[in-house]
Amino acid sequence: MRVFKCSFCGEEIQIGKGLTYFKIDGAPLHFCSSKCKKSLLVYKRKPRRVKWTKHYPRQASQNVKANPNPL
Ligand SMILES: [Zn+2]
User: Fold this and answer.
1) Three-class SS of residue 29?
2) Which of 13, 17, 20, 26 has the fewest CB atoms within 10 Å distance of its CB?
3) What backbone phi and psi angles, to 5 degrees, belong to 32?
């Protein structure tokens, strides 16, 4: 069986878990939880701007912590 990744948070979805949403053009969106589905479809959040997703830029945030006042 194929293991899908969540379209919002990027985590792998266990077999038998999660849900698949089909857009009007037939493109599938896989979600691990209703939290991810609501974040993308209802609240229209960007995965790169949400801290708990895998798409959030970790390296950049660590550099900001190391240099709190860059110039
Ligand atoms: Zn997810």
Assistant:
1) strand
2) 26
3) -85, -25
Q: Percent of the chain scored above 70 by pLDDT?
A: 83
- Between CA 35 and CA 7 the distance in angstroms is 12
CA of 62 to the centre of ligand 1 (A): 23
Q: Give 57's contacts (C-beta < 8 A, 6+ positions apart).
A: 48
Handedness of CA 26, 27, 33, 37 (dihedral sign): negative
Ligand 1 centre and the CA of 25: distance in Å?
22
- For the chain, list the domains and their CATH numbers: 1-71 (2.30.170.20)
Q: 34 alpha carbon to ligand 1 midpoint, in Å?
A: 8
Can you give the pTM of this predicted structure?
0.75
**Mean per-residue pLDDT over the chain, rounded:** 88
Query: What's the rounded Cα separation, in Å, for the pair 26 and 34?
Result: 20
